[in-house]
Design a protein that fits this description.
Strand order of the largest sheet of chain B: 15-11-13-12-18-19-17-20
Largest interface: A-B, 11 and 13 residues
Distance between the termini of chain B: 36 Å
Structural class of chain B: alpha+beta
Shape of chain B: globular
Shape of chain A: globular
Radius of gyration of chain B: 21 Å
Strand order of the largest sheet of chain A: 3-2-1-4-5-6-7
Largest sheet of chain A: 7 strands, parallel
Oligomer: heterodimer
Structural class of chain A: alpha/beta
Largest sheet of chain B: 8 strands, antiparallel
Strand content of chain A: 15-25%
Helix content of chain B: 10-25%
Radius of gyration of chain A: 17 Å
Number of helices of chain A: 9
């Protein structure tokens, strides 16, 4: 039995990842902002087979709480095996791009709070010399696009930070996975028109669990996004800048 | 494709959609538009549509709350599907108290339509097994409804077509089983009379009975079919394997030409003929026994873009044989019937549901490709026969019955309308209450 920490547990992707671990009888620790929602998820995970569920109400934007929350969860649930950082916001590009203040707030959630959490987790796992850190970034970080560069920039930062961390922790026997989901049909994307490339949260969650088990370094989920992003990265900027991606 | 269609893909409706995820949700602000809960869209007609209004999508409220493995009760959010329930309960030795022909419906939908299954003659409807639920009304109040508290709302909501408010969670009783298997027998019959005799002689010892009936063969072959009866396999069978995911998806809308009277006749003849012996015994997994069509995702697309109707009625036993034969004559003569015709007898167990459809008698359900006016004309003629025999139609399958016929079949509709939430409505409800 393993202990899995889900940070941003009320996100649709994290919830599905939780269900997948619960069905295998693992112990789950859920962090998120909304206690009633965490408890709804927790009850479901218990029914599905989780051996134990612990919930912590935490505002993930408040980086000062991270270290203490981690300490409390470890003392409550025991040593962690996997920690998955999955929270985030999808800012509406049109409405944020004119205002640094609004950009800053989304960069804080999607990048700064990741840096804080990943640092705390790195220090923790380094000290116990085992475990897996999973950072959910995005295909949006692979190339700046006019329709989504505020989100993309934060995700690119988180991805680069994650990749660097992997190197640092090799010597400590800690593995770091960078997950790059493509477009997922979740509440975060509720307002977007769904095309053929959209995947369900279940599909993405299965991909994430598989990547963790296989100790992948970077995983695009679903896998076809590796090819899609390869093509997108290959388009010369002189052409790309004129596209509407 | 507009995802928010009904299963019959007729009629079309334009509606706003608001997806819910959480139990503590507030009633969505719809700016004066009416609301209607929408689960997995398996109602055939327009009872799950709200043209010009808002659909409140519940499939994101899909968490279990409590599973009492000892007592065999389950409490879950209203958007949990029977598919998910089965995956959880079968390995623990439990089964659904009753189930329709698809597992891709939500628990909320099962209550709202007070669904029935092959064990209606012993178990009654789904509503008979509901312990309680929470109903969220548009004024923001939450009502715990059971057979003892808020009894009126409890009864109105079971079979209430989603009109009494939003069911947020529900608790219901399960049925104990030893394994995932069904011991079944298939018996050929040559007409309605033989079907009725088989039903009568099987009702006591067989938990599940249902028949496929040939709605194409005329003359001597009219009313022939295969009677299927089953029981959960005995305790000596150990496997509690749950069902697999669907393997096939209907890849596109089939051209209307594909389903013509010849291809349907061929299907019926082959289906009847594939069983050579009068009686055959087999042991089958619950999945093909209860849900043969679930194996093909989106099978409704085989009827093409124009969609299809399902016509399901119940008529009383008294005079039922004659009426059923007359109805079959009319259907076979019309050459419009399809291959999915199912006949079953309902039992006397009463549902708490005020607007519940099943009544003691014979029920027939069959699909009709939408051929426009000629199909609607046939339905009018069938309505007259059903009506004359004291029968009624199933709202979950209906897209076209007249207000008069509805109000005659469901004389309690006016009493029921007292419980309809003032901000809730559906295309179906507006249609059948539009005039008296």
């Amino acid at each position: 039995m393993k202990t899995i920490l889900l940070i941003g547990a009320t996100s649709a992707i994290a919830e599905e990842v939780g269900k997948s671990y619960a069905r295998q009888g693992h112990r789950l620790v859920l962090w998120g902002r909304n206690k009633p929602h965490l408890e709804s998820i927790g009850k479901n995970l218990k029914v599905l087979g989780a051996s134990e569920v612990h919930v912590s109400e935490i505002d993930l934007d408040d980086c000062e709480q991270h270290a203490k929350a981690l300490e409390e969860s470890v003392s409550e649930a025991g040593q962690l095996d996997v920690a998955i950082v999955a929270h985030g916001v999808l800012p509406d590009q049109q409405s944020v791009q004119q205002s640094f203040e609004r950009i800053q707030s989304s960069i804080h959630t999607n990048f700064i709070s990741y840096v804080s959490l990943l640092t705390e987790l790195a220090n923790y796992f380094e000290s116990i010399r085992r475990g897996t850190i999973v950072s959910i970034t995005s295909v949006a970080g692979d190339r700046g696009r006019k329709s989504n560069y505020v989100y993309g920039a934060a995700k690119a930062g988180a991805a680069t930070f994650t990749d660097g961390l992997r190197g640092r922790l090799v010597a400590s026997n800690v593995h770091v996975v960078n997950i790059k989901p493509g477009m997922v049909d979740t509440p975060m994307t509720q307002h977007l028109k769904k095309g053929a490339l959209f995947a369900s949260p279940e599909t993405v969650a299965n991909g994430i669990v598989k990547a963790i088990n296989k100790k992948k370094a970077t995983a695009y989920v679903p896998g076809y996004w590796r090819l899609v992003m390869f093509i997108i990265r290959s388009i010369p900027e002189s052409i790309f800048k004129k596209t509407n991606f | 494709m507009n995802r928010f269609q009904s299963w019959g893909r007729f009629p079309n409706a334009d509606q706003e959609v608001c997806a819910l995820r959480w139990l503590d949700t507030a009633v969505p602000e719809s700016g004066g538009k009416t609301l209607l809960p929408y689960g997995l869209g398996r109602s055939y007609g327009d009872s799950c549509l709200n043209d010009g209004g808002t659909l409140v999508e519940t499939s994101g409220m899909n968490r279990f709350i409590k599973f009492d493995v000892e007592a065999g009760t389950i409490r879950c959010e209203a958007g949990v599907s029977l598919d998910e329930v089965l995956k959880l309960i079968v390995p623990k030795g439990w089964f659904l108290p009753t189930t329709p022909g698809t597992k891709f419906i939500t628990v909320g939908g099962a209550i709202a339509n007070d669904i029935h299954g092959k064990n209606h003659h012993v178990a009654g409807t789904f509503g008979c097994h509901v312990i309680g639920f929470e109903l969220l009304r548009s004024d923001g109040t939450r009502h715990l409804c059971t057979s003892e508290s808020n009894t009126d709302l409890f009864k109105a909501t079971i079979g209430g077509l989603g009109l009494t408010g939003l069911i947020t969670w529900a608790e219901f009783k399960l049925k104990k089983v030893s394994n995932a298997w069904i011991d079944m027998e298939s018996i050929k019959f040559e007409g309605i009379e033989e079907f009725l005799e088989l039903s009568k002689s099987s009702d006591k010892d067989w938990e599940y009975t249902v028949s496929w009936i040939d709605c194409v063969a005329q003359g001597k072959g009219m009313g022939r079919g295969i009677f299927m009866r089953g029981n959960h396999s005995p305790a000596s069978v150990l496997s509690r394997k749950v069902h697999d995911e669907p393997r096939i998806t209907a890849p596109f809308d089939c051209p209307n030409l594909m389903l013509n009277s010849l291809s349907i006749k061929a299907f019926n003849t082959v289906y009847y003929g594939k069983q050579r012996a009068k009686k055959a015994k087999t042991r089958v997994h619950y999945d093909p026994f209860f849900y043969p069509l679930d194996a093909v995702n989106d099978w409704n697309r085989i009827y093409g873009k124009r969609g299809f109707f399902q016509y399901q009625f119940v008529i009383p036993f008294e005079g039922g044989l004659e009426t059923m034969n007359e109805i079959l004559r009319m259907i076979t003569a019309s050459k419009q019937g399809s291959f999915l015709a199912v006949i079953k007898t309902f039992g006397a167990k009463e549902s708490p549901g005020m607007m519940s459809f099943p009544k003691p008698g014979i029920t027939l359900a069959l699909d009709f490709p939408n051929r426009g006016a000629s199909t609607l004309k046939l339905f009018k003629e069938l309505d007259a026969l059903v009506d004359a025999s004291g029968g009624l139609l199933y709202p979950a399958k209906d897209a076209r019955m007249s207000p008069t016929f509805f109000q005659k079949g469901y004389p309690q509709w006016e009493a029921f309308s007292e419980f309809v939430d003032p901000k809730f409505s559906s295309s179906f409800w507006r249609r059948v209450t539009s005039q008296s």
